[in-house]
Design brief:
The chain is of the alpha/beta class. Helix content is 40%, strand content 17%. An 8-stranded mixed beta sheet has the order 3-2-1-4-5-6-7-8, with helices on both faces. Strand 5, helix 5 and strand 6 form a beta-alpha-beta unit.
Amino acid sequence: MKTALVTGGNRGVGKAIAMGLRDAGLKVVIGARDAKGGRQVADELGVDFKHLDLNDTASINAAKVWLPDVDVLVNNAGILEEVALLDEGTNFARSLQIMLNAPYELIRAAASGMRDRGYGRIVNLSSDWGSFKEGFGGGGGYAVAKAALNALTLRASQELPDTIKINAMCPGWVQTRMGGEGATRSPEEAAKTAIWLATLDADGPTGGFFRDKKPMEW
């Protein structure tokens, strides 16, 4: 049985992805910084839980012990600060840490085991707000971090063997704490593309950017 880690899997799109991968027959691990809430959701779903705070270097380093056992990595966790990039109130470093630096460290740690086993699937939850084609949107730190995550996805695909598929995807405007009640998509709808990318066949794409299972422009 393959093991999947979903960061931020205790709510929203991450929870829907965890449910979908569980139903697809994977052993699912939810990673979240909220230990109590994360364990409650893991128990509810019948999956495992690991405490993982992407803004804490010690927490990430502790995860590197077991990350080589992960076959499927879904970098879902993120933050959205509605602050302009150059405003005094922006927390640019935190946006980059959670949505770029931490995924990079998790990818590096997980990829070692994936190489050894000749199998790996990595899915980076990005956004059209991080697309040059779409013109960026949202808070400035969010847009830059997601654009950088896209670049990380493409570059990593050039270095990883074809047995490890790495792709980015845009979930759209989703009814979550981040997206708000006025959003047009359910978490379950948004999760479909991530679940597809996490379970790709050997001839599936790598180094791509997708929405609703269709390619997007960077």
